[in-house]
Protein: AMP-binding enzyme C-terminal domain-containing protein
Amino acid sequence: MATTVTRRRPPARSRRSVSTGTWCRATGRAPGATDRSSCSGASAPWSTPGGEKVFPAEVEEQLLAHPSVADAVVFGLPHERFGEVVSAMIVPVEDTEIDLGALVSHLDEHLAGYKKPRHFFVRDSLERSPTGKVELARIKADASRERDASRQGAR
Structure:
């Protein structure tokens, strides 16, 4: 008795799909755009100009593993040369101060260099919603204003 084996073909690479909406927007094919994708959200990666992917959740996990960090959110901020750099807004444990040197040393041990935040912003609270989400657009705008103000003060 002969047995027939049916094999399913894997989907063609050209049939990959990217969700549209607020989670991910492909920008690599627009005229004058760089070959990067702009993504937001804790589980969505974004690409660095070197092509490496950064998962904000992975960086947040390492930040939260540090004993002086109570809460953290990781996001990308625009950069003139690199397109976007990893940045973090952190909340210290109550009644403590964050030693950024110790935090950076902790991250050096656990993350690749391209995944480490280049900018840290310390806040009393991230003002999470009742569902635990952070308004990322507000966080990015606050961080961008603070970074620009510190640049103006340094001149």
Summary: Residues 136-154 form the longest helix (19 residues). The chain has one domain: 22-154. The longest strand covers residues 69-79.
